[in-house]
Amino acid sequence: MKPLGDVPWPPEQIVTERLILRETRTEDRAGLAELLSDATVQAYLGGPQHTREELEELIPHDPNTRPGIFAVEHAGEFIGRITIQRRDRAWSHHVRDEGDEVEIGYEFLPSTWGKGIATEATRAALDWIDRTLPGEPVVLTTQVANERSLRLAQKLGFVEVERFDAYGAEQWFGVLKTG
Question: Based on the number of CB atoms within 10 Å of its own CB, is 176 exposed (0-12), middle (13-18) or buried (19 or more)?
Fold first, then answer.
């Protein structure tokens, strides 16, 4: 995966009815550490790679080090993130011959699950992609076993392109339906 080198970052914050999508900030470090160390959140992403304490040491003081990561804020608190990046040509799964599609991913704290937060945030990010990179195909990959993520992808309008095995599990690869 590679950042969106063709897009100025960070963009203006995106405000929805309940959320703000913005660049990550120093005050997000604790929330990022919680997100990345939570076994439930990371269950379909290879599991937590570090403890929360380790992450609090590893996350840079200014975590806004890579373009393409929106912090999602609700009621003044960091609750998750949305990543937008180019799908590296080296991957074998693409929707266009040259690859390099825009890929979106999302991670939210379990306390937000079942409240429509992920849908609201991801729709806002998809609208931003459509305005910023009009006509670009947007893809998403999730484990088939991750039923919540798969339902969200389909609710957002992603349609299955193919399934494949990677990281010891069946993966679902979809593209955002346009028009």
Answer: buried
What's the confidence (pLDDT) of residue 61? 66
- State the Cα–Cα distance between residues 16 and 90, nearest whole angstrom: 35
Question: Is this prediction's pTM over 0.70?
Answer: yes
DSSP count for the chain of H helices, then E strands: 4, 8
Residue with tokens 């306390």: 111
Q: Give the chain's end-to-end CA distance (angstroms, integer).
A: 27
What domains sit in the chain, N to C, each tagged with a CATH number? 14-137 (3.40.630.30)
Lowest mean pLDDT across 10-14, 116-120, 172-176: 10-14
Q: Convert 23-50 to b/e letters by CB count within 10 Å (16 or more is b).
A: bbeeebbebbbbbbbeeebeebbeebee
CB of 72 closer than 8 Å to CB of 97? no
